[in-house]
Design goal:
This protein has 599 residues and is mostly helical. The protein contains 24 helices and ten strands. The strands form three sheets. It has a six-stranded mixed sheet with strand order 3-7-6-8-9-10, sandwiched between helices. It has a two-stranded antiparallel ribbon with strand order 1-2. It is globular, with a radius of gyration of 27 Å.
Length: 599
């Protein structure tokens, strides 16, 4: 996500314009994905492209230095990485902290904690240990995207040491490719072992161990295809071969970006590795000085975007996060999207021009007084002093007291205690009931009280449902997927199988599921009357989920569909800003829709 070296210890290296083109493609994909995942479902693959490029470029630079000097100046390497990466991210964190303090003080403590993790480049593990979902847009987390920079920085710290070890020890150097290839496979196997089908796989998405595979593929390519040793003039058949593989590769990458979904199981079970392998020929062709692809990717527009890809990546996410906070996800006005893009471009350009480039070239000399630019130096120093001092005060927790429960959090405290509901569940029972005997409530007459099983939306409506069905069992859990409900029913609700019993299933908010799992879940309720609530979420799995629920309702006589999607469509006032969780009107509307069927 950052620029390329111009020379190494007096040995000039060729600027790889094609890589800037690939960076441009990657960052554009990521920005579109974060603007609206439904527009480009695989846009998040841009991060993997960045990882491959980083592994390739850094290894190429280090090997080039070793081949010309017989060693690698580790201190100099790390100094350059710090000068390239740290100033821009410090600037971003400072601005985000100050903005949060002024305009979103109720989340200042959470943002402060994320900022501290980002400063030490451990954001990815911070999110793993705190069970943060990459794909959850309900919480305002303007620094969540820095997880990928943490992985890259961890790689930059450790890899040069390991590389030096591998190329200095003859036995290891002899098997360099095999060692790296095996390590990449271990990373793939770790992801396959930890991942779960039809689940939120943020753990493997964030993990350094599980994402190392893409970086190591870049390393392999650097060893096989050193960019600074490629010849300008090659024979035509070879050129056509390189060109063809490159064009097919970049074509495949674009297809993957357009079609892959974060909800695809195969993506976590070897898919990332396969897509990354398919991307390698595009990089090989893009860095070759004789190919047409390198010239196409090195056009002025892509070059401009690629050179600023680091700053664009840094700034787009907080801009989108803070702006979308005031609208319902999936229903953002088009003019707001244009504003977000313009703001991102302006902030990225300012960061690139006044922070990233100057520090890369001058380092701390940027603040040394110069009689020809004294006013600029004073302005820089004052700005830096204000940003740093405000950030330090905030990071030390001086303003933590400003964070408190908002009304939404207080409301859900009835069903889920505490502020962090990411993995907590609610079961609203009520006086013990004999499920084999008719029971009369104060509002409704049922042969048996109904059972409600759902995810975070069920948590949202739990209190309202309890008013209408005080003797019911309401089991809702934030983050629950349909496959989680199968063992739950087997363990706790195996008695719900009789014709006089009613079951409401509200599952599908958090991802797709197989039709087989859905059938298995339905079959566990025997002859009970089962109502399945379809979903209305701004996610790419919405259509697939709703089609399966509709199909199961048409297939089973004892299953009926509650069409929440139709009822909710176009009613943005039903939803919180994430387009998933419900406001008061939405709660009442969904409960009303359920009542139409149960009563």
């Amino acid at each position: 996500m950052h620029g390329q070296e111009k020379k190494i210890n007096s040995h000039p290296i060729r600027y790889l314009y094609g890589l800037d083109g690939l960076r441009a493609l990657a960052v554009i994909s990521i920005i579109i994905y974060h603007l609206n995942p439904k527009w480009l479902s695989g846009g998040f693959l841009g991060v993997d492209t960045f990882f491959i490029i980083s592994g390739y470029l850094i290894t190429s630079i280090l090997l080039h230095e070793y081949n010309h000097t017989g060693s690698i100046d580790l201190i100099q390497f790390w100094k350059k990485r710090i000068k390239r990466l740290l100033p821009a991210v410090l600037f971003l964190i400072s601005v985000v902290l100050i903005y949060t303090l002024i305009f979103e003080p109720n989340i200042i403590k959470n943002v402060k904690q994320d900022a501290l993790a980002a400063l030490f480049y451990v954001s990815n593990w911070w999110y793993i240990f705190h069970d943060v979902s990459y794909f959850d847009s309900f919480k305002i987390m303007p620094l969540k995207h820095l997880w990928s920079l943490a992985i890259e920085e961890q790689f930059y710290i450790v890899w040069p040491l390991l590389l030096l070890l591998l190329i200095r020890i003859k036995k290891l150097k002899k098997h360099f490719l095999l060692i790296i290839f095996i390590c990449s496979l271990i990373s793939v196997l770790a992801m396959i072992f930890i991942a779960h089908p039809n689940a939120d796989n943020s753990r493997v998405y964030f993990g350094t161990d599980t994402r190392l595979q893409t970086l190591l593929l870049g390393v392999l390519l650097a060893y096989i295809w050193p960019p600074f040793r490629l010849k300008d003039k090659i024979k035509l058949p070879l050129k056509i071969t390189i060109e063809s593989f490159g064009l097919v590769s970049i074509g495949l990458l674009i297809i993957f970006i357009m079609t892959v979904s974060s909800n695809d199981n195969w993506f976590y079970f070897g898919g990332i590795y396969f897509i990354s392998l398919c991307t390698l020929p595009a990089i090989a062709s893009a860095v070759h000085p004789s190919t047409l692809l390198s010239k196409i990717l090195g056009n002025r527009i892509f070059l401009w975007i690629g050179q600023r890809s680091y700053s664009l990546y840094l700034w787009h996410y907080p801009v989108i996060t803070f702006t979308n906070r005031h609208f319902v996800q999936g229903h953002i006005p088009f003019y707001i999207i244009i504003v977000e893009i313009i703001l991102t471009l302006i902030l990225a350009e300012c960061s690139y021009r006044y922070v990233e480039v100057p520090f890369r070239k001058e380092g701390l000399k940027y603040f040394i007084p110069n009689k020809y630019a004294l006013k600029k130096m004073i302005l820089r120093s004052c700005t830096a002093l204000i940003l740093i001092s405000c950030s330090i005060i905030t990071l030390f927790g001086h303003y933590d007291y400003l964070q408190h429960e908002n009304k939404k959090e207080v409301k859900t405290a009835y069903t889920v205690t505490g502020n962090d509901t990411s993995h907590k569940s609610v079961i609203l029972p009520v006086p013990k009931i004999d499920i084999n005997k008719p029971h009369i409530t104060n509002k409704n007459i049922h042969k048996d009280p109904p059972l409600f099983i759902g995810d975070s939306v069920m948590v949202d409506i739990g209190e309202e449902l309890h008013k209408d069905y005080p003797d019911s069992i309401i089991d809702g859990k934030v983050g629950r997927n349909l496959y989680n409900a199968i063992p739950l029913v087997q363990d706790k609700y195996s008695d719900f199988k009789q014709k006089n019993q009613q079951v409401v299933l509200e599952l599908g908010t958090n991802g797709d599921f197989s039709y087989e799992d859905l059938n298995n879940l339905i079959s566990l309720f025997g002859d009970s009357k089962v109502y399945v609530v379809n979903t209305n979420v701004p996610r790419d799995w919405k259509k697939s989920v709703n089609e399966k629920l509709s199909k199961v309702a048409n297939t089973h006589k004892n299953v009926q569909l509650i069409d929440w999607n139709c009822r909710a469509e176009g009613n943005t006032d039903y939803f919180a800003y994430d387009g998933i969780h419900l406001e008061r009107k939405g709660v009442q509307a969904l409960v009303s829709e359920i009542n139409k069927h149960l009563k």
